[in-house]
Amino acid sequence: MQKSCDISFKEKVNIFSYEYLKCIKFIIDSNAPDYILTKKLYSKLITTSHLLEDLLDFHGAKNNKEWVYYREFCALIRHFSLAGYSQKHILNKYSFYDLDQDNRINYKKEAQNTHQMIQNCLRKASPVILVEAERLDIRIPEYGYKKAYFPEILSGQHLEHNIDEFEDTGNQAQNLTRIASEFLEIIEDFEHFAFYEKYEGSKLRELVPDKINEVEIRRFEMLLHNLQSSFDSYVIDTRFSSGKEQLKLLRSHFSIVFHILQVAGRLLHFYERHLHDVGHKDVYNSVSKLLADMVEVDSLLHLTVNSCLFYAWQFLSSGKDLSFKIVNDNMERGTIQVGIPKERGFHSRPSMLVAKIVRHYGGEVSLCIGKDKFDASSVLDIQWAGGKIKKENIERIVFSGDVRALADIKILSEVNYGEDIMGKGIPLPAELSYLH
After folding, report:
1. Taking a C-beta distance cutoff of 8 angstroms, is the pair 270, 213 a contact?
2. Which of 14, 85, 310, 334 would you call most buried, defined as having the most Cβ atoms within 10 angstroms of its Cβ?
3. Is 192's pLDDT higher than 50?
4. How far apart are CA 280 and CA 288, in angstroms?
5. Candidate CATH numbers 3.40.50.2300, 3.60.21.10, 3.30.1340.10, 2.40.40.20; the one for domain 333-435
């Protein structure tokens, strides 16, 4: 079995650099202020830079004084092209998302500014990369690509929607309820990243990477990707399906946030891996300083936090009411009768656990005492109901609403709402592990 190749490392670098450097020359040659880089160009940059970076890493370029600069520039091109591809996708799709009906959010201008910053970094880096390639005696292509090779993905035409094979198997409402509930869970989980204001440079450096970092943002990116995939697989969407505009708007909310987080994740990766000072010395510090000349750190952090994560939270927040409506329009409803917490009634702990169950699923649930109804997602409402229960010496009560929440409330009631007769907490069943 052949384990090696007769082609030398240097010759392989020439081969793997050729299309990559043709793209770099194209960026230099098309440096007109009104030219916007296209998805096809980003795609070419992503694939060629990735292959070249893999080749360089395999041969140890990261730890070689001669080659480390060329390798780091390659990483810059790859990650900013990945960010640019996602940002360009947002701009291409923005009018189709139909999110401008929420007047609280004015994102398009910010999206254009973010894309412009990504372009500027690529343009600034390109001449430096060419100089570095010449220093390493890498063959430079005589010509870059022609502009016609990288057309925009949009055109003035749209294909007719003429496939409508709608067959409701009875699972549409169930799938919608599940997906909208999962979206509400993501919104609640993301809330500790909630941005209600924009931050200045010194504060940004405190936030990144200690509180905001690539690992956390990628986790939410994956959750939203899974949600979008689930929607596309299990929710039937045709011209004639009921509530089509609601479905479109729901998908738009988690789709745009997914792509915004893709941009943020790439920018955070580049900052944390290539710009953030973690105590490197000598050549690595020199590389970081050179990269910082091409990527202004404060601008990068500003766009990551104030243009990406700030607006990610705005879109998540604006999608909350829509998700609640979809859950309540499609959920299966039911009623259960259960006992009250023994000895101490609905004080803080039992009330909080019931409310957390209801909020976990997102559907409406009422605690019913005769003709009176109390919101079971509100700790305060449950405690008010607790006062009436105690005053009237009631021993069994009714919950009505989302059957998923009712099933868990029933499990909770069977362990005396999570506490012993002295009011101390006890372990909860595995089905309620999300309450911890």
Report:
1. no
2. 85
3. yes
4. 9
5. 3.30.1340.10
